[in-house]
Design a protein that fits this description.
By secondary structure, this protein is α+β, with helices and mostly antiparallel strands.
Amino acid sequence: MNPLPQNFVAVPFPPKPGMPDNTLRRIYSQNIIGDRIWLGVDHDLLSYDIKQQHWQKHLLPTHRPHNQIQAVTRDHKNQYWAATDLGLFLSEALGQDFSQQSLPAAIKQLAGITSVAADADGSLWLGIWEKGLIKWPQQNPEGQLEYYSITSQPGDAVISILSDQSDSLWVVSRFSGLYQLERSTGLITRYHSGADSLLKLPSDILLCLEKVNEHQFWVCTNQGLFFMDLKQHHSELYQVEQGLPDNRVVAINAKQSGSVWVSTKRGLTELDLTTKTFRLFAEKANINPLLLETRALNHTASGQFWLGTAEALYHFIPSQMQDYKFNALMVISKLKADQTQWLDPQSSVQNPLVLPVHTKEISIHFSFLEYYFSDGHQYQYRFSGSEQDWRSIGHQNQVSFNRLPAGSYTFEVRNSLEHSEQSTARVHFVIPAPLWQDKRLWLFVSLVALLVVWLIWQVRTRNLHQQNSRLNQLVRQRTADLEQANLALNQQARTDFLTKLPNRLAFSEQFELLQRQAIRQKSTLTLVLLDIDHFKAINDTYGHDAGDVVLSKVAQALSQRLRQRDVLARWGGEEFILLLPETSAQGALVVCEELRRCLMQLVIEYDHQQISVTATLGVAQLDDVQLELIRWQSAADIALYMGKKSGRNKVVLYQGDAAAIN
């Protein structure tokens, strides 16, 4: 009798036209909302009503066949949001189709959405492929977005967002670690595998996150199951050495008191938090562990667990699961050496099987004498002639070896789920060595030959080796000196020595790079020229050293109030130039006005005197982003001239040959 069938129940996927019933289907997202399980399966969005026990397919208005559904969530208005490769889709009520008709244009333009979460006030958090995290505050109708530059390196993505009533938002990245965003302050803390992390992770490659309380979390990594307690500054790592079936953890659920359920690429297991031991279940329930899906282990309010695989959904109640033991024998049924074979071979260390001298291929057949779970049995073997560790071979019930050298060998095989002596079988055999392979004869000949060759080589190459060593050391030293000098010259050529800002050359290179990016992404650029008012009077009154101090302090003040992606450089004399990527003209005016006010409030101490400064800013945003830098600089210079002409200490926007004073 199967000890697990009554509570480990399979729910097959609904049939898809044109595909066989047993077709494997990839699950990209799985979560429980209310009484429904929502699945992003292949390129379909499905939901399963747990109470009514029926499937429903939800249509998305896209004609592209390849559109992966990465996440589904429900907001405070009971609206459903689907994050997909092609964008964000909305269903205003359960049963209604998903669409983008009511979404602002800025939201419709988003693509490559990898995750979505909803706050209680209606704000949406979106993870964008290679672009980081985006907040849509309270779903404002204009679609105004807030950008957070995390996971913006190539190939990285936000794969999971954990949002609840607390002040902290937790973000799981693909391979840059774990992020904590404090909503009240905007402060972002990154937890990673580096030495400077507040709590060091075993790996930056993460798959999921399970929150226990405000300070305790379980993390899926490719290096094991990781527990972190931020309050106690304590962590624990569970790996294969501690009983975890595999270090690649793909799903966690810690909703059941006293234990943690973990899904790995070698099976479903339960960690008992009291004894710190694992129990493996998936293979004993005849589930192929390779089909277990990422972040596909959920828990209902009634205590029922739902496990997602590529062939079906499974639900079970943990309290009814049994720690079943097979208590069966492992036997080696046949050993075959070329054309010679032994059925049910009997051997020992003192009385091994003697194989033919020139044996080329050896095959060993074995089986586990337990017949109910026969399709789910997996094996491990250890071969004393080549490797000392146990090697997993899945469901394969035979192993072959080719052209083994002469010697004594022991082959051991066991059931991968039970490591008892009863479930382990062994066979001992010997491959005799031919006469011409007598190791003692060849060892003597080899030693004599090696001794002669070594003496000749030692005399002839000693001096050459010393010369080469000295020459190599000299070349390495000269190469290192040259590389260091080149790096210093390259840095010096692109940095203003006084303000430590990029100079005109470095800014021109950055402009070309961001201009190409803006053309590719069809985004905006804004260029600003900033000139310190009455700078000549400062030099004349306080001296040129005071002017240098003013330039340095102004550069520091400007740098502290700009975004990381903004480019600030010294253009020449008392002029600074600023490039604002993905910023509208109105947004640039707001930024420049803040900079102008900042400089007005700046008091510079020099030689027991206080120097006040103001600045005039010319802002240019051209319709044709592809124009050369000289055209952008000329437009900003016109606006700057108008500001100087109209009294200085102003922010002026270029409008053709005219300018608008802010």
